[in-house]
Write a structure and sequence with these properties.
Number of helices: 3
Helix content: 55-70%
Mean pLDDT: 79
Low-confidence stretches: none
Shape: elongated
Radius of gyration: 21 Å
C-alpha cells in the first residue's frame, strides 16, 4: 500500500467524528451512573429504622433505582449503537 492510498469506505469503518460524541455521552452517563452507588449507600447508612418506613425514603430508593436503570440502558445504547446493523440512521 503506498502513501497515497486511502482506506475504502465500508460498513465496518466508522469515522472518529461519529464515534467521539458517542464516547463523550457514554463517559458522562457512566460517570453519573457510578455516583448513584455511593448515594444509595449513604442513604441506607444514614437512615434509621423509623425513617426507612416513611414514604419519602421509599420514593428516594425508587428514584435511585430508576436512575440506575436509565444509566444502564444509556451505557448499553452507547456501546451497542456504533456496532449495530445500521449504525447512526
Amino acid at each position: 500500500m503506498s502513501t497515497g492510498d486511502t482506506i475504502p469506505e465500508s460498513p465496518e469503518v466508522i469515522s472518529i467524528a461519529v464515534v467521539r460524541p458517542l464516547l463523550q455521552s457514554l463517559l458522562l452517563a457512566h460517570t453519573l451512573l457510578t455516583l448513584l452507588v455511593p448515594l444509595l449507600i449513604a442513604l441506607l447508612y444514614c437512615s434509621t429504622r423509623h425513617s426507612r418506613r416513611r414514604p419519602i425514603f421509599v420514593l428516594n430508593i425508587l428514584a435511585i433505582a430508576m436512575a440506575f436503570s436509565v444509566g444502564v440502558l444509556a451505557d448499553f445504547a452507547g456501546v451497542s449503537q456504533p456496532f449495530g446493523p445500521t449504525p447512526f440512521h
